[in-house]
Amino acid sequence: MYLNNLDSKEIMPGLHGQMVHGNQISWAFWTVEQGAVVPEHQHHHEQIMHVVEGEFEFTLNGETRVYSDGAIVLIPSNIPHAGKALTACRLMDVFSPVREEYK
């Protein structure tokens, strides 16, 4: 399997994802357009976000920070979070358990 062979899905406006699913985890590779917004939400999944490239404004449990190349953010289960791409970004997320809605 190669990343460039995976189909891309636009999950929300400006947020394009390529997904890999195991038995217990989902791994998402995102291409995010500048200005794209991820509205505040929460889910039962644990999540780890990695900013591969770009600047991403991220709010976790009411605290907002700007993350850039190389940043890693741990997002516990059921904690509100949101984001906005300040530049075009490439992000990776790992979710556990599997994000069934991304299949």
What is shown here, in short?
This protein has 103 residues and is mostly beta strands. Helix content is 0%, strand content 56%. Strand 2 (15-21) and strand 3 form a beta hairpin.
Description of the molecule:
The protein is built from no helices and ten strands. The chain is globular. It is 0% helix and 56% strand. The protein has one domain: Sandwich (Jelly Rolls), CATH 2.60.120.10. Strands 1-2-3-10-5-8 form a six-stranded antiparallel beta sheet, with no helix packed on it. The chain has a four-stranded antiparallel beta sheet with strand order 4-9-6-7, with no helix packed on it. By secondary structure, it is mainly beta. The protein has strands at residues 9-12, 15-21, 26-32, 37-41, 46-53, 56-60, 63-67, 72-75, 81-85, 89-96.
What's the end-to-end separation, in Å? Answer: 16 Å
The total count of helices amounts to 0
User: Stretches where pLDDT falls below 50 for ≥5 residues?
Assistant: none
CATH superfamily: Jelly Rolls
What fraction, in percent, of the residue positions are helical?
under 10%
The CATH architecture name reads: Sandwich
What is the N-to-C succession of helices and strands? EEEEEEEEEE
* Cα-based radius of gyration, to the nearest Å: 13 Å
Q: What percent strand?
A: over 45%
